[in-house]
Design brief:
Blueprint (H helix, E strand, L loop, with lengths): L1 E6 L10 H10 L2 E8 L4 H13 L3 E5 L9 H11 L5 E10 L7 H18 L3 E6 L2 H10 L5 E3 L6 H10 L2 E4 L9 H9 L5 E3 L21 H12 L3 H16 L5
Parallel strand pairs: 1-2, 2-3, 3-4, 4-5, 5-6, 6-7, 7-8
Helix pairs in contact: 5-6, 8-9
């Protein structure tokens, strides 16, 4: 059984065949999925609620993405409301994105801090997005006393991985680990402590090499698990078991 620890199932690209995508995941032994709600359009919010109500094995996370930090005042009440749902088990994805700069950097940092404080208040682990901003991301995490969460879709250096681990964070590996030239990420996948390793798709983005160029979906997380197994000299089943247990522990999930 595999736990896809980061999927965007409410993305519009799944609107026409979402139920089939979920069935595909089950046929590939994906037993649990964390669906991440970031943008809070009315349609996405409705779909998010339905997913969590209709599927016992789908859990949720909600947060204001750094792209949308400038809409903080509009989105904050919806965030607080969503976090009250029983099956919402994390706050995120949140963080800093200096690649696109869709929101001003100072605004991103302010909203990031506010959400970290909210997560601490509610006792929720955080899902961190950091793109071209790792140093400032880590500084903020340290200053806010964060000790429970995951660096989602990790793409940093070994030194940055160690800094994340020192904070108590998990490291999540996604489809790019399967790319032929991803030697640095493959090294990370080999060296991260097994008890801190998660796997994810970040679907519909970042499809693994065997399906590269297609819309990603939770069923394809198996390619990530297989690659990590090859890199670490483990069976696919062993990687699946340990990463599933890690995700369940981090997110406080006991249901199978």
């Amino acid at each position: 059984m595999i736990f896809d620890s980061h999927a965007h199932l409410t993305d519009l690209r799944f609107e026409k065949d979402r139920s089939q995508v979920i069935e595909n995941a089950l046929t590939q032994r994906v037993s649990q999925i964390l669906s991440v709600c970031s943008f809070f359009t009315e349609r996405e919010a409705e779909d998010f609620v339905e997913l969590l109500e209709d599927y016992q094995f789908i859990f949720g996370s909600a947060g204001i993405h750094p792209h949308d930090a400038k809409q903080r005042d509009k989105l904050w009440p919806k965030l607080e409301q969503t976090l009250q749902m029983r099956k919402v088990v994390a706050l995120g994805e949140i963080g800093l994105d200096y690649h696109y700069d869709n929101s001003p950097r100072e605004v991103q940092k302010k909203v990031f801090r506010q959400q970290l404080k909210l997560a601490n208040t509610r006792g929720l682990p955080v899902i961190i997005h950091s793109r071209e901003a790792m140093e400032e991301t880590l500084d903020i995490l340290r200053s806010e006393g964060v000790s429970s969460g995951v660096m989602h879709c990790f793409s940093g250096s070994e030194e940055e991985m160690k800094a994340c681990l020192d904070l108590g964070l998990h490291i999540s590996v996604a489809g790019p680990v399967t790319f032929p030239k991803a030697s640095r990420l493959q090294r990370i996948a080999q060296t991260v402590p097994l008890d801190r390793l998660l796997v994810e798709t970040d679907c519909p983005y970042l499809a693994p090499q065997p399906v590269r160029g297609k819309r990603n979906e939770p069923a394809f997380v198996r390619y990530v698990v297989q690659k990590i197994g090859q890199l670490r000299g483990m069976t696919t089943e062993q990687v699946a078991e340990v990463t599933t247990q890690n995700a369940q522990t981090l997110f406080g999930i006991t249901e199978s």
